[in-house]
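Annotated sample (chain length 423).
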Amino acid sequence: MSTVSVEKRGWADRLTDLMEKMAPIFDEEHLASVRDGLAGLMSLLIVGAFSLLFLQFPIPSWLAYLDANPDLSAKLWVPFNMAYGLLSVFAAITVAYHLARRKGLDPLMPAALSLLAFITIASPIVGAWGEKGLPGTYFNNEGLFTAIIVALLTVEVYNFFVKRNLVIKMPAGVPPSIANSFVALIPTVVVFVVAWLVRVVLGIDFAHGVVVVLSHIVPAASSYVACAIAETLHACLWTLGIHGDLTIGIVLSPIWTSNLAANAQALAAGKPLPWIYTDMFRSYVVPGGSGATLPLAFYLLRSKSARLRQVGRLGIIPGLFNINEPITFGTPVIFNPVMAIPFIAITFINATVAYAAHVLHLVRATAIPAPWTLPGPILMYLATGYDWRAAVLVTFTEFIIPGVIWYPFFKAWEAQVLKKEQG
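Output written by the structure step:
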């Protein structure tokens, strides 16, 4: 009986089993902590980016006023410089915090210890700090990967000592805040001494070494080929019921964040923007949500099927703000071969068209982490620092390209739904 039941299982059941087996990979604690830690920095980057937008607001009289008042301009630069100039410092805290929580630790001391270790590892030692304070050569986006590595290793060391009770325990009745500080004492000494030996005694510039290694990796991971493969994979995963954005983001979010920060600093300095593939670039690829389903929502509104019309009504407003779960789950797109084909094809074509537009210098690269829930044209106009061509490009990838591709597949699926409803 069990053999027969297994043979009768459909392809959707087999895919569900595969998804369940793969689920632990997509929530691996170190990768997920990096993802969540960097996501937690977006509010800081958005605040800093709005300072840049304010400084570059495209009104000639305002720009002339800033040029004539350098003291005011310098003060307005402070939020941007603080947010982006200390990006890696913040990451050392947030990544360690999330990993410590996943390991069941009180996250405060591991996060603080990660910050201490990163500053020790990333600061140049040649020449005393002196009255000029702490130099921050790798405190911006250049030290982001170093901060991630230091944060993960720091929490692992901390967890090793705490879980094996290799800590100093205070008697009962000692206030928890004091007791916790003594618990952290031994792992703090170990982590700090190791960082001090590496950077100060041995003179190993670990942060620079990471930058050298990444100088060969990041260009490859930011290329068109990488973009096309990653975004197509993300669409394929969604059609199997797996959160495609989170899945590829586990691996690529550090590169997206670093690239966006580098672009923001280049824009602020009036230099060419070095990177195309950032997390904000993805808003060209998935406007209205993964699969660019907003045109599909409009088609569903006019469907002959009452069920599909209801899905369209539920999905049209969220779709305007780049939320399309009502469409992907309600149509459905997931586990639906008819709708999966355009979902994947549109993602690949959008990535290709948007990347080509950047290569041909038809649009400025993204540099501003604007809120992703803004409607596409507004979002990309802000994300590129007021480039109106970005609004035009996203109109193509949000409405025209997906509108043409979705229609025949919508009609084919509508016919199947109507047949079932009438049968």
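Annotation: The chain has two domains: 29-40+86-216, 222-422.
Annotation: The two ends are 32 Å apart (CA to CA).
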